[in-house]
Structure formats: structure tokens, C-alpha cells
């Protein structure tokens, strides 16, 4: 499809030239393939939002990486962010618990509310925010400590447990929720780095849940795992969705189809479409979403 | 989106995926062409009283059956290996359903050929053959147009076929009344007229299958299921 192949460079050029609507650069491109700024098709809003995000823009220096995105993330939903590399999905995810703060040239604009409270309020305690909005990364990154200490680390620094027995309970509960208790209960003092990749990733999830977050952000949590470990993590996501709001960035469209309630498709910093996952994978509304999930570009 | 709709399945990054989809499409159209010809031949064999042609049609139904199995296998393999999504998924799922419609059309043609043999052996004056010719032409045209709509992904043409189906039903009812009149005129006509009625019934079913194919084409193109909905609803879907 010639139109799709020419689309990417054409729009890339446009980003440098103008901050306004991306203008169609190819005559044959149908109207539906034109990305209109801040015009997300589908259902980006929710009646019961955990996150209410309006007109969000992210700049890396002069580059506008996120272009006027408005989206609600509903309470206790699993929402998947998909899109080609460099589309802004991870950048957008990292806004939700201010992980972008550590990047000097990164600026965030717009209104980002967590339970109607401004995430980027200058008085906001970022440590408290990240306790509420936990994160699991692409590569499992356990601390070079014992399995027990990995899970106990957060509750300790946040002062969630006064007694050793309380801490033991938190560790056991978190490991159980992460589906790791049976495998880890007899080796809690063993070093975490000795576990398999899949176990390490579930340990990181246990570590994230240990401080009772409300939201868990996952940035390609299974890309370093084999299919069995991936299935375990996905099973875990399904179970956790009863008590947490989960935002997952994934390169695997099948994974998005398997685990999420809604799917958001990002393209060159735009939020092109948000819809029920069932709809996105059977009859997406936007031509770009269609092309991406059917493997026509990306 | 490609400018030409028929290229819709030929633009994946994976060439093998393109090849698999276009193979499925062309095999489906081959099967469609064969059952269309079978139906036309069966009607001709009946009207001409040609027993040899009728025998050939019945034998050729085995080819139709084999094609059904091949297509189902191709579609299953494609799902297993490619995990198609969106329009590709709708395409594969629709093909699976439409293949059984085609296979049934093949069965109806075989049935007509069987009655062609019986009627040729009895060798009496033709009754109701005008109706058979008329409805036969009508439904084979519908089937042809449905396959054409599939080939070109033309939802508007598919819609026309859905509308035609009502007319076939009316023609079928009118023909039934005519044959009933013949039967009442002379009871010796009954056995013969009953056979012709069965043929008309088979042709009416061919029209239904053409209509099913048309509905699947609309699903493939528009992503909306228009089965069991009034034509007016389907018109809204296609008109958008």
C-alpha cells in the first residue's frame, strides 16, 4: 500500500514544520488516514475516571512528543497502549506517575488529574504519587537483595508495617497475589537475581503491589519473557484488574487483545483511536489503527 | 487505505500473508464459479431433458465438496499461523461461512440434476418450466453478482442482492400457485408438478445463499453484522 509507506516520512517532516494539524502530504491518502490533532476517534472518555487527562503535551526540548492528547482511564480497567516505536505511548505512560521528571529536557503541559487531583501540582509529593501509581518495567529489575527484602523494601520505606509479623504478612500476600508464593516461600532468603526471568518479573509485580498502589503502570512487561512466563503475567493482570487500574504498554498486539478492556492506538504522538478492545481488533474505526493491527505498517 | 478496494488484502509487510490471503480469495472465487456453473447446467439439463448432462453435474458435486474442505483447511491454517485482525479477520471468518453457502448451492444443483433425470425419464409434457427458467436465471444472476461483490468488496452491490431476495420469494410463491393450478386441473399432473416444485424450492434456496454471501460481504467491508436485520437497516450501514 503505497499511501501508508509514504505516510511516515511525510508526517515526520510535518512535525518539524508546524505544531498544528498534521496536513495530508499525499494526495491519494483517504481522509480517514489524516490525523487531526486532538480528534481521537472512538470512546476516549469514561464516566468513572481514575485518571482524567486533558490536552496533554510532552516536549523533549523543542520536539513535541505528545500532541494534545485527552483521555480518561477508568477505575479498575485494563487499558492497553499500542502503536509503532516512537509513537509516544511510553512517554505518555510515564507522565502518569511523573517518571519523566528525571529527564531534564522533558516538559509536560495540560491537565493530568488522578482522582481529580493534579499530578503535576508543584506541592505534590512525588514519592507518595509513585506509591499510589506503581510501575513495572520491560526488563525485570529486582534489587540485588533477597526475595523477601525485594518485596519488603517499599513497605519499609513507606512505614507500612510496624512489626515484623505485619511485614511478613505483606510479603506473603504480595507474593501470593503475584502468583509467586508457592515457588518462592521456601527460598525467601535466596537472592532475587537467581530467579528465572519470568519469576523476576512477577517478583517486580509483587514488589509493586506490596505498597498497595491504586494503579499499576506496565511498560512492555512481557517483552523479555518466554510464552509460559508471559501467560502467567497475563493471568496475573486479569486477576489484578479486580482491584487495580492497570495501564499496559505493549508491542504485542495479541497481548493487548488478550488482556485489555480498552485499547488506545498511538501514532506519531497522536492518540488516534480508543475503543473497546473487542471493537479495535474486529472492526477498528480509524484507518491507521486498521493498518497497524493488521500488519500493514509499523 | 488503498485506492482500489480489491487490493485491500495485498499490502501487508509480510508477503507470505498477502499470498495466503489472495490464495484464499482466488480459491473461493473458483469454488463460487463452479457452483454457479453447476446451477446453470442443472437448470438447462432439466429443461432440455438431458440425462447425460444431469449425470455429469451429479458427479461433479464431489469436486465442490473437495473444494469446501480445501478452503476450510486454508482458512484454519491462516488463522493459526497469522492471527489475522480487523478486516483480515473479518475476511477469513466470512470466507469460512460463505464456503458452506457455496457447498449448499452445490447440493441444490445436484438435487435439481436428480429431478432432471426423473423428469426426463417420465418424458411428459413440460409444466412450470417457464417459471424454472425465470427463477433459475434470477438466482444464478444473484449468485454471480454476490461473488462479484465479494471480489470487488462492493457493499452497495451486496445490498442490491439483499433487496433481490424479496423478489425471488415473491416469484417463488407465484410459481407455486401456478403449479397448484396445474395439479388441480388434472390429478395426473401431481407427481410431475411436485418434482418441479422441489426444483423451484431448490432455486429459491440458491437465492437465499446468494443473499447470505451478500450479507457477509457487507460484514467484511463495513464491519457490521447485517444478518437477521431488515434491508433498511443494512442500507443505513452501507450508506454511512
What structural keywords apply?
A: 298 residues; alpha/beta; Rossmann fold; 2 domains; seven-stranded mixed beta sheet; four-stranded antiparallel beta sheet; 11 strands; globular; B: mainly alpha; Methane Monooxygenase Hydroxylase, Chain G, domain 1; 7 helices
Task: Tell me what you see in this structure.
The complex is a heterodimer of chains A (about 300) and B (about 240). Chain A is an alpha/beta fold and about 300 residues long. Helices cover about 35% and strands about 25% of the residues of chain A. Chain A has a 7-stranded mixed sheet, sandwiched between helices. A 4-stranded antiparallel sheet of chain A has the order 3-2-5-6, with helices on one face. In chain A, helix 5 packs across helix 7. Chain A is globular and about 55 Å long. By secondary structure, chain B is mainly alpha-helical. Chain B has a single domain, classed as Phosphate transport system protein phou homolog 2, domain 2 (Methane Monooxygenase Hydroxylase, Chain G, domain 1, Up-down Bundle). Chain B is built from 7 helices and no strands. In chain B, helix 2 packs antiparallel against helix 3, helix 3 runs antiparallel to helix 6 and helix 5 packs antiparallel against helix 7. The interface between A and B is medium-sized, with 26 and 19 residues. Chain A: Keywords: ATP-binding, Nucleotide-binding, Phosphate transport, Transport. Chain A: One of its GO terms (molecular function) is ATP binding. Chain A: InterPro entries: AAA+_ATPase, ABC_transporter-like_ATP-bd, ABC_transporter-like_CS, P-loop_NTPase, PstB-like.
Amino acid at each position: 500500500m503505497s499511501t501508508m509507506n509514504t505516510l511516515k516520512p511525510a508526517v515526520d517532516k510535518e512535525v518539524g514544520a508546524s505544531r498544528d494539524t498534521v496536513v495530508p502530504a499525499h494526495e491519494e491518502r483517504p481522509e480517514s488516514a489524516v490525523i487531526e490533532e486532538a480528534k481521537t476517534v472512538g470512546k476516549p472518555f469514561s464516566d468513572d475516571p481514575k485518571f482524567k487527562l486533558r490536552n496533554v503535551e510532552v516536549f523533549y526540548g523543542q520536539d513535541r512528543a505528545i500532541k494534545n492528547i485527552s483521555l480518561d482511564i477508568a477505575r479498575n480497567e485494563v487499558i492497553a497502549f499500542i502503536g509503532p516505536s516512537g509513537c509516544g505511548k511510553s512517554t505518555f505512560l510515564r507522565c502518569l506517575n511523573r517518571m519523566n521528571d528525571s529527564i531534564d529536557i522533558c516538559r509536560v503541559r495540560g491537565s493530568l488529574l488522578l482522582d481529580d487531583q493534579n499530578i503535576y501540582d508543584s506541592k505534590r509529593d512525588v514519592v507518595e504519587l509513585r506509591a499510589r501509581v506503581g510501575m513495572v518495567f520491560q526488563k525485570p529489575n529486582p534489587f540485588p537483595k533477597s526475595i523477601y527484602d525485594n518485596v519488603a523494601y517499599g513497605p519499609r520505606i513507606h512505614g507500612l508495617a510496624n512489626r515484623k509479623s505485619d511485614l511478613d504478612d505483606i510479603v506473603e500476600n504480595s507474593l501470593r497475589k503475584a502468583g509467586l508464593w508457592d515457588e518462592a516461600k521456601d527460598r525467601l532468603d535466596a537472592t532475587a537475581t537467581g530467579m528465572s526471568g519470568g519469576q523476576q518479573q512477577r517478583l517486580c509485580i509483587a514488589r509493586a503491589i506490596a505498597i498497595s498502589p491504586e494503579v499499576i503502570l506496565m511498560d512492555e512487561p512481557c517483552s523479555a519473557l518466554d510464552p509460559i512466563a508471559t501467560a502467567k503475567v497475563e493471568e496475573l493482570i486479569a486477576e489484578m484488574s479486580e482491584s487495580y487500574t492497570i495501564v499496559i504498554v505493549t508491542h504485542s498486539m495479541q497481548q493487548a487483545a488478550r488482556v485489555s478492556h480498552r485499547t488506545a492506538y498511538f501514532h506519531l504522538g497522536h492518540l488516534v483511536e480508543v475503543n473497546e478492545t473487542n471493537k479495535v481488533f474486529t472492526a477498528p474505526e480509524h484507518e491507521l489503527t486498521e493498518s497497524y493491527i493488521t500488519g500493514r505498517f509499523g | 487505505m488503498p485506492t482500489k478496494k480489491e487490493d485491500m488484502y495485498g499490502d501487508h509487510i509480510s508477503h507470505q500473508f498477502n499470498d495466503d490471503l489472495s490464495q484464499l480469495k482466488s480459491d473461493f472465487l473458483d469454488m463460487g464459479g463452479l457452483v454457479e456453473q453447476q446451477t446453470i447446467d442443472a437448470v438447462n439439463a432439466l429443461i432440455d431433458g438431458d440425462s447425460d448432462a444431469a449425470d455429469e453435474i451429479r458427479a461433479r458435486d464431489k469436486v465442490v465438496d473437495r473444494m469446501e474442505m480445501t478452503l476450510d483447511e486454508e482458512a484454519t491454517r491462516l488463522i493459526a499461523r497469522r492471527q489475522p485482525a480487523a478486516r483480515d479477520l473479518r475476511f477469513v471468518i466470512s470466507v469460512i461461512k460463505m464456503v458452506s453457502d457455496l457447498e449448499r448451492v452445490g447440493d441444490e444443483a445436484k438435487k435439481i440434476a436428480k429431478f432432471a433425470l426423473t423428469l426426463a425419464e417420465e418424458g411428459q409434457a413440460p409444466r412450470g418450466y417457464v417459471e424454472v427458467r425465470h427463477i433459475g436465471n434470477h438466482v444464478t444472476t444473484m449468485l454471480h453478482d454476490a461473488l462479484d461483490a465479494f471480489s470487488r468488496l462492493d457493499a452497495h452491490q451486496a445490498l442490491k442482492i439483499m433487496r433481490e431476495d424479496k423478489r425471488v420469494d415473491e416469484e417463488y410463491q407465484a410459481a407455486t400457485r401456478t403449479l397448484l393450478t396445474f395439479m388441480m386441473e388434472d390429478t395426473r399432473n401431481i407427481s410431475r408438478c411436485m418434482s418441479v416444485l422441489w426444483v423451484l424450492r431448490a432455486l429459491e434456496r440458491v437465492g437465499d445463499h446468494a443473499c447470505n454471501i451478500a450479507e457477509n460481504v457487507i460484514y467484511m467491508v463495513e464491519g457490521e453484522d447485517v444478518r437477521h436485520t431488515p434491508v433498511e437497516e443494512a442500507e443505513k450501514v452501507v450508506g454511512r
